[in-house]
Amino acid sequence: MSSATPTGQGESLVEASLASRIGDLDTRSSADAMFALIEELYPLCRSITGNGLRQSLEMISGHSPLQVTEVPTGSKVFDWIIPREWNIRDAYVKNAAGERVIDFQASNLHVLNYSLPVSTTMSLEELRPHLHTLADKPDWIPYRTTYYADDWGFCLSHNDMLALEDGQYEVHIDSSLEAGSLTYGERVLRGQSEQKVLLFAHTCHPSLGNDNLSGMVLLAELANILAQMSLRYTYHFVFAPATIGSITWLSQNEHELDQIKHGLVASVVGDAGDIHYKKTRSERAAIDRAAEHVLKHCGEPYHIMNFSPWGYDERQFCSPGIDLPVGRLTRTPNGEYPEYHTSADDLTIVRPEYLEKSLQAYLQIICCLETDRAYRNLQPNGEPQLGRRGLYRKMGGFQDIAETQLAMLWMLNMSDGQHSLLDIAIRSDMNYIKLHAAATALCDNGLLELIETDEDTGRVTSR
Ligand code: ZN
């Protein structure tokens, strides 16, 4: 780029390259990488604290380097206290013949997550109150936790429970609940601006595929892709346990939260269901408008959900004192697919092709955030003569001329300094990338100029 090139023109070319790079990415190989990482992570027994969580963050670091933070047991984080750290080595129930009729080694879901250590012998009647099953899904093991109540128990399929015979059972849980820490991982990709896009995945569920190994690997791969690009925003990826983890992270980063301009919670993104976007607390944030516009033009069925103070960690980011513009992009929402929180949420539910489609949606929304600018029409009196400047030829195939012309006319008409590219895309109901390409061509021909914003200068202003 020569030094004589006007600033606006140069920046438009950088943006075009980012937009086209996102469009041309080989997401097929990303899908394979994401699924391979899920297969690695699946066997580990994760929880809201402990070595399984730590090892999971280490495994992710092998693909996408994370900075790991440990917050000690007993630390106050807003209204919560970091609990004792839980670790488990083995657990079983043995019958009188010495056979393991419930075996943690076969599935880590068999133990009530956060169970106290136990080593005793008891009758089936005494054991029953500690057994958790799903009568309406009799072949599946439920996923249950007891984080904040001292208890112990086993989860098993209803049919296996019915098959237990009266008699004495040896009950053993080799776990520990001791002072330790809660672990979370972060990756920060510095952009031109200190203003941030926050991307969060919860990391505490044990052997469950869609909820939420899918969200963890999607963010790991997304970070790798964005790390290769020149970025406008700074991207802050957080991998932490659900609820207590996001509350801990918010509490530890409270002084920097005003940098967060947009955010998404990534969970349940690997199943065959339709894609769902859940709006932020205000329901009017830029991320809400970008996500809805992208999904409307993605060619797949989609659903937009209004905000509610229920769901995953968007509840913490959208709590009234925090009130960040953080939405949630999932496929089938939590609780709305039959395998949710059971052993059937396994690696047959999560498929590489659905991870890939979810990743593409994240990339397109990010492309929108990165390139959404306001422009000024430099020839606002009447329509400029587009044909004379060869603009149709530069914009691609002959069959696209009508659409190309319409995209340019929308950009020229609405670029009065009051409307950003996303505003114009929503107003015209045209594909964002096509409008962006039109804006780039118009900038390159001196018909539009970019209006500088805080994100462009790198300055941070309050939201
Ligand atoms: Zn869950």
**Major sheet description:** 8 strands, mixed
Strand order of the largest sheet: 1-10-12-11-13-16-14-15
Kindly, what is the distance between the CA atoms of the first and last residues, rounded to a whole number of angstroms?
Answer: 34 Å
Enumerate the distinct ligands: zinc ion
Mean pLDDT over the full residue set: 92
Helix share, percent: 25-40%
What is the count of DSSP helices, taking H or I runs of 4+ residues? 15
Q: Structural class given helices, strands, pairing?
A: alpha/beta
Radius of gyration: 26 Å
Number of strands: 19
Strand content: 15-25%
**Low-confidence runs:** 1-14
**Shape by Cα distribution:** elongated
Description:
With 463 residues, this protein is of the alpha/beta class. It is 35% helix and 22% strand. The protein is built from 15 helices and 19 strands. It has helices at 7-24, 27-41, 51-63, 124-127, 158-162, 209-226, 244-252, 286-296, 314-317, 352-371, 391-394, 401-414, 421-428, 432-444, 454-457; strands at residues 67-72, 76-77, 80-81, 85-94, 100-103, 118-123, 131-132, 154-155, 168-178, 181-189, 196-202, 234-240, 260-266, 275-278, 302-305, 326-330, 374-377, 416-420, 448-450. An 8-stranded mixed β-sheet has the order 1-10-12-11-13-16-14-15, sandwiched between helices. Strands 5-4-9-6 form a 4-stranded antiparallel β-sheet. Strand 4 and strand 5 (100-103) form a beta hairpin. The radius of gyration is 26 Å and the shape is elongated. Mean pLDDT is 92; it is low at 1-14. The structure holds zinc ion (ZN). Zinc ion (ZN) binds next to loops.
